[in-house]
Amino acid sequence: MDAAVTALFKASALLDPFRLALWDRDGLTVTQLRLLSHVHESEGISNAELADRLYVTRPSVSALLERLERGGFIRREVSPNDRRGICIWLEERGREAVTAAREEAREYAASLMEDLGDDDLRHITSALEKLIAAGAARRARDLRAGAAAKH
């Protein structure tokens, strides 16, 4: 287990040059970019849904949204269905940041893997898909436990 955790951290660190370039260019953290990506996928998403998708608290997502709104990346509107709810929409700057970052991330990640053979790529893909599934299951359990604790 220790070797796997260490390898995961080292692999994650390989993305640091990309993350830093993104910060230098747009002033965006990885979490802010993930939030923008979720809004890009689901325009009009609510604060609560964003918090669930990002696996953070609602106050945390509100602070992220405030910074992104000040930066001209998003806008917040009162929900037409629930006056207490807020819908999140991308502004053009946010749309451009997501599109550029996705393209750059794919290119950068592909460059990290270009010397790997087909078998290595299949093994990495399989292992990462299993890790993603395990993480999603863990997240679902944690969300259920959090909901149960509220009631």
Task: Provide the descriptors you would attach to this structure in a database record.
151 residues, mainly alpha, Arc Repressor Mutant, subunit A, 2 domains, 7 helices, 3 strands, 74% helix
Order of helices and strands: HHHEHHEEHH
Could you name the CATH topology of the largest domain? Answer: Arc Repressor Mutant, subunit A
Biggest β-sheet description? 3 strands, antiparallel
By CATH, the architecture of the largest domain is named Orthogonal Bundle
Mean pLDDT: 91
Question: Rounded to an integer, what's the Rg over CA atoms?
Answer: 18 Å
Estimate the helix proportion, in percent: over 70%
CATH class of the largest domain: Mainly Alpha
Backbone shape: globular
Kindly give the count of domains. 2
Count the strands?
3
Distance between the termini: 36 Å
What is the H level of CATH, i.e. the homologous superfamily of the largest domain? Winged helix-like DNA-binding domain superfamily/Winged helix DNA-binding domain
The number of distinct helices, counting runs of at least 4 residues, comes to 7
Largest beta sheet: strand ordering: 1-3-2
Look at the helices and sheets and give the structural class: mainly alpha
Low-confidence stretches: none
Beta-strand residue fraction: 5-15%
